[in-house]
Amino acid sequence: MDIQDLFHSCKSGDLHRLQYLVEVKEVEVDVRDKWDSTPLYYACLCGHRDIVEFLLEKGAKCEANTFDGERCLYGALTDEIRNLLKSFHVISKRTIRRDLFEEFLRRLLESKLHSDVVFSVHGEEIHAHRCVLSARCLFFAHMFKTKWHDRQRVELNHSNMLPGAFKATLQYLYTGHMEIHMDLVESCVKLARQCELSELISELEDRLKKTLSWESSKPGVRVTTLVLSPENSKETLQRDLAQLAHWALPEKLTSWILGELPFEPEMMPLTYPDICFSVSGNQFTCHKTFFCARSDYFKAIIEDHFGEAELNGSLPIVYLHDVTVDVFVRILSYMYSDSCDLHPDIVTDVLVTADMYLLPGLKRLCGVAMATCMDVSNVVSMIQTSRLFGLVRLESQCAEFIANNLPKIIGQEDFKQLVIEDASQVKGREETDSIDVIDEIRFYISSFVQTYSEMEEANDKLRLIDDLLEELDIEG
C-alpha cells in the first residue's frame, strides 16, 4: 500500500505525502512497478520538479548513460528537469542512510580491511575475503578448499579473464548489485558461467535485452553502463552471509539452526575465522572484518587491544561480559546478515546491548520489531524507550498510534505524566512554545485529512487534547 502511495504521490506532485513516506515510513525510492518504471521516472514524466529534486537528494538512481538515467532524461517534461537530472550526475550509489549494510559491504570490498586473499588478474591486484566468497559462491568455496588451498595470492592470467569483468563479479558477490561497462558484459557472462552463477547470468542477459531494445527505439541515445539491481538481491545476500553466522556457533548450539543449513555437518565448508569470542563459556569463531567494520566498539577491542584477549590455538580469543548467549546469537546474526530474530521477550535486551556495542542499524531493527507489538497499554513506555535510545522513527510511530487511538489513551495516567514531563522541558515558556508529544500527535491528527467526516473526527480529537491541557493547567 505504501509503495502504491509513493507512486501516486510522484505522479500527482504531492511532496508533503512523499516526504512522509520516504522519511517516516522509510519506503525505498528505487522501487519498480510492473512496467519496470521508478518513482523518479514518473516525476520526470509528469513535470514535478520539486518531486524530482527530493528523490534525487534521497538517492534515486539517475546516472548518465544507464537505462534508468537515459529513460528519465528522455521522458522529462521540461528542460528545467533535464538540467536538474544532469546536475545530479554523481548519484551512483544507493543512499547510505537507508542501506547501511550494502554500503558496509561495498566499503569492505574497496578498503581491503582484513583481506585474506589477493587475486592478480593480468597484474592488477584485487583484494577479497575468502569467507564472503565461500558463502556466496560454491565455485569459490570449492577452489579455496582444493586448488587455492592455503594460497594468499591467486594468479588469474587467462586471456578471457578481464580485470573489469572480475571486479564487477566480485561487486555482485559482495553487494548483490553490479555496474559494468557494456563492452564488458559478454566477458562477465562467461565468468559467471565459469563460477556457476546462474542467477547472475539470467539477470545480465535480461537487463541487456531490455536495455538494447529501449536504446534501439530512441535514436541518438546510447547506454554505456549496465546496472543490475535485482529486486531480491538483499534477501539473497542476507541468506548467503547468514551461513557465516550459523557456522560461527559453538557445536552445542548448532542444533538450533542445523535444519536450516544447505549442508550436512560433515560437508560444511571452511569459513576461515580469525577471531574467537567467548560468551559464558561458549566460543564463537568469527571474522574480524565484519565486527571491526560494523562496530567501533569491537574495533577498539580487536584492533586497539582494549579487550581481554588470549590465544585459542591460532585464534585470538576475546571474552565478552554483560551479554547473554541468546542476545549474542542475535548480535552475531545481525553482524553477518543485517537481520535477526527479535521476539518480544528479548528485543529490549538486544536493544540495550546494541546501544552498548554501537550498532545503530540493529537498534533500528529493534525499533521495527517493537512497533509490531505496540498497543494502548505499552505505547507510552515505548515512546519513552524510543527517546532514550534515539529511535526517531519509533517515536513518530508511537505518536501516530496515539493520534489514531486518542480516546483510549488520553485518560491514562502514564500519558498525562508524559505530557507534564514534556511541558516541564520548555523553559521560559512563551506563547509560541510547544510540547513535543502534543505537537507530534496534533500533526498526525491534522495531516492527510481529505473528507468532511475525517475533518469532524480530527476536530473531536483536537478538542480532547485541549481539554486535557486545560485539566493539567498547561498551555500548549
Tell me what you see in this structure:
With 476 residues, the chain is of the alpha/beta class. The chain folds into four domains: 2-93, Serine Threonine Protein Phosphatase 5, Tetratricopeptide repeat (Alpha Horseshoe), CATH 1.25.40; 99-204 and 218-228, Potassium Channel Kv1.1, Chain A; 236-371, Potassium Channel Kv1.1, Chain A; 379-471, no CATH class. The chain is built from 24 helices and nine strands. It has a four-stranded mixed beta sheet with strand order 7-6-9-8. Strands 2-1-3 form a three-stranded mixed beta sheet. A hairpin with a 2-residue loop joins β6 (275-279) and β7. α3 (39-46) packs parallel to α5 (67-75) and α7 (100-111) runs antiparallel to α10.
Primary descriptors:
476 residues; alpha/beta; Serine Threonine Protein Phosphatase 5, Tetratricopeptide repeat; Potassium Channel Kv1.1, Chain A; 24 helices; 9 strands; repeat; BTB domain-containing protein; ABTB1
Quick structural summary:
This protein has 476 residues and is of the alpha/beta class. The chain has helices spanning 2-12, 15-24, 39-46, 49-57, 67-75, 79-87, 100-111, 130-136, 138-145, 163-175, 185-194, 198-216, 233-248, 288-294, 296-302, 325-337, 347-356, 360-371, 379-388, 392-404, 406-409, 413-424, 436-446, 452-471, and strands at 117-121, 124-128, 153-156, 178-181, 225-228, 275-279, 282-286, 309-312, 315-319. Helix 4 (49-57) runs parallel beside helix 6 (79-87).
